[in-house]
Specification:
By secondary structure, the protein is mostly helical. The chain has helices at 13-25, 28-40, 46-69, 76-83, 85-124, 129-136, 141-164, 168-194, 199-202, 214-231, 236-239, 247-276, 279-282, 288-297, 299-333, 352-366, 371-400, 415-430, 433-456.
């Protein structure tokens, strides 16, 4: 199906890369550092950042090929539909992706919003009236913090939707400003760590930390889940393929520049933190980045840095809401989702119904699901259908499509795609039993809904549709 002409191709390479990088960074690295240290019980958790980057590069090869070949709104929806057959199994796979997107897209958006709310608690605690309020209501402090966090997270989603309610060209300019803030914050942290670098603190491994055993690999798996979560977003530009300028060149370039740039920043950032804050203390800190700035520069710098981290977190919510709002739109224009989601704003030319719906569900998750559960559920939801399934689909497409249909070709094909499949299955297992069960249950329900829908339409679900 051809791309609707109303979508405006107003995003260039700079805007696309900015959207990717703001989505990737967000609040992720600032909140997962303690989880990763606890998972591996020491600074050897740095290995997980390298492993996450390798998986991101391997999977980025898959996204780059598919995104350059099919630059349309919707990303994985389009890729899965074409890879498994537009009129046959592709209908089921693309439907399952949309079905899971109804859960995992708001999960992704709400994770950034909840992380924002947690870090904002540091600034809120500095307000003059807060200490007295805590002293008066100390018995209910945990409940107060929970209500505060969830309320702030929901409000942040509302602000993101309001800002996204405009033309794509204006959004591109906003993304550049947010990306600059992201990079400035991380670079400040890295410079602060490198100028007071304590190698002894960074390399303070506990006894047996690097002994290769099942315990080591179990810890590495759990830490890698957190690392991979922080890398998610390198593919965000594919969701906006229908609004990209020169997508055949700019989509692969934006994907790989985002991955390599962010990987270097993440590794340097965590090294800097552990060179200033002992890992035994960092693993229990709710505001580990703020703690770093407090130790390195003092109270005023910690306040400023926390404010910048909050802007960074908002950037990820902003970018994620933008990208995911195009997915139900793509499915609706294809006749595989509710038609109301195919509506474009009459003057601003963006899918406003889809944007509002994604925002509403994200708000509900913000007030009902805790952050740590959100992170693991995000990956469990995506691993099989979107990531592993998409890599398998690419291999299937290579058997059917001629070379001229691939503007970008990965090196050493199909090795990166095969390794990505293995990697995503490993991450799926590492998310834990409950997230795996939830993901498989959602998948099974999606298949039942698909079959029920086919029954209502009086068609065999896998027969060719004219």
């Amino acid at each position: 199906m051809s791309e609707p002409e109303q979508l405006e191709r107003g995003l260039g390479f700079l805007e696309a890369t900015s959207l990717n990088m703001t989505f990737m960074v967000g609040i992720g690295p600032f909140i997962v550092v303690p989880f990763m240290i606890r998972a591996m019980n020491g600074p050897q958790c740095l290995i997980a950042w390298v492993g996450g980057a390798i998986l991101a590069v391997l999977d980025g090869c898959v996204w780059a090929e598919l995104g350059a070949a099919m630059p349309q709104a919707g990303g994985s929806y389009i890729f899965l539909r074409e890879a498994y057959g537009v009129n046959r199994w592709g209908r089921l796979m693309s439907f399952l992706f949309i079905w899971q997107t109804l859960f995992q897209a708001p999960l992704s958006i709400s994770s950034g919003a909840l992380g924002f709310a947690d870090y904002s608690g540091y600034l809120a605690a500095k307000l003059p009236s807060v200490p007295q309020y805590i002293q008066t209501h100390g018995a209910n402090l945990d409940q107060i913090v929970k209500v505060y966090s969830r309320s702030v997270a929901a409000l942040l989603v509302v602000i993101a939707v309001v800002l996204l309610y405009r033309r794509i060209t204006a959004i591109g300019k906003i993304s550049v400003v947010l990306c600059a803030t992201v990079l400035a914050t991380i670079l400040w942290l890295i410079v602060g760590g490198m100028t007071r670098f304590d190698a002894g603190r960074l390399l303070a491994f506990p006894p047996g930390a690097l002994n290769i055993s099942w315990i080591f690999f179990a810890g590495l798996g759990h830490a890698s889940v957190q690392a991979v979560y922080s890398y998610l977003g390198y593919y965000n530009v594919c969701n906006l393929g229908g609004e990209m300028k020169d997508p055949e060149r700019n989509i692969p370039r934006a994907i790989f520049l985002s991955i390599f740039g962010i990987a270097i920043l993440y590794f340097a950032m965590q090294s800097s933190i552990l060179a200033v804050v002992p890992w035994q203390e960092a693993q229990n800190s709710a505001y580990v980045a703020t703690l770093f700035f407090l130790r390195r520069y003092g109270e005023n710098a910690a306040l400023i840095a926390t404010a910048l981290i909050l802007i960074t977190a908002f950037g990820s919510v902003f970018s994620a809401t933008l990208g995911y709002s195009r997915v139900p739109y793509a499915a609706a224009t294809d006749g595989n989702f509710f038609s109301i989601f195919a509506r474009l704003h009459p003057t601003k030319h963006f899918p406003h119904i889809s944007l509002l719906a994604i925002g509403a569900v994200s708000m509900i998750i913000c007030v009902t699901v805790p952050l740590f559960s959100v992170i693991r559920s995000i990956l469990a939801m995506r691993c099989l259908i979107q990531f592993a399934g998409q890599a398998v689909g690419l291999i299937l497409l290579h058997r059917r499509w001629k070379a001229e249909r691939w503007p970008y070709r990965m090196w050493l094909y199909p090795v990166p795609a095969l390794l990505a499949i293995v990697g995503w299955i490993g991450i799926f297992v590492s998310t834990g039993r409950r997230p795996m069960l939830i993901s498989l249950t959602a998948m099974a329900l999606g298949i039942l809904v698909y079959l029920w829908r086919a029954l209502l339409l009086h068609q065999w679900p896998f027969e060719e549709v004219v």
